[in-house]
Amino acid sequence: MSLGPVEYMVIEFPGNQFKGEIIPALREVVDAGVIRIIDLVFVRKDDQGNVSVMELNDLQQDAASAFAPLARDTNTLLAEEDIQKVSEIVENNSSAALLLFEHLWAKRFRDAVLNAQGRVIAGERIKKEVVDAALAWRPGEQGAAGGSTAS
Asked: Which of 22, 35, 36, 24 is nearest to 97 (CA)?
């Protein structure tokens, strides 16, 4: 079985305050066939920096029930070293969800590129803050090059 493009994402919840608000939005993209969750691991770090790692079946019943339909096809692809790296960047007194997911929407496009003898030679996810700043920028403001100063 060939997978589409695969990506990981770490979502941190400061103060260990995960309340499940992301589940409906995640369910929407899974149910629509946009992504497929391949692996899902939860990391919790207490005030002293002690780390606990939980798989879906280690969660409390209500959380496990909420995530189960989203992660019904999961595999154990995340390695111990992946989880270790995440636990190093999670702040004390925080929780994190580590998701490994397949971009189902991109499979057909990827296959078309490969069939056309094309190859991706660069790509990067651009942070929301950078996009927001670019959208908010207006030519001529803040001494921008090429901006009109004529009156």
From this structure: 22
Interatomic CA distance for residues 147 and 138, integer angstroms:
9
Residues in CB range of 20: below 8 A, 6 or more apart: 63, 66
Q: pLDDT exceeding 90 applies to what percent of the chain?
A: 40
What value does the mean pLDDT take over residues 116-145? 83
Measured CA to CA, the distance from residue 62 to residue 56 in angstroms comes to 11
Q: Check residue 130 and give its pLDDT.
A: 93
Number of residues that this document lists for the chain: 151
Nearest to 81 by CA among 60, 53, 103: 53
Distance, in Å, from the CA atom of 136 to the CA atom of 138, rounded to the nearest integer, reads 6
Phi, psi of 36 (to 5 degrees): -130, 125
Cβ–Cβ < 8 Å for 89, 51: no
In 3D, which of 57, 47, 45 has the Cα closest to residue 10?
45
Distance (Å, whole) CA 127 – CA 111: 27
Is the pLDDT at 101 greater than 60, yes or no?
yes
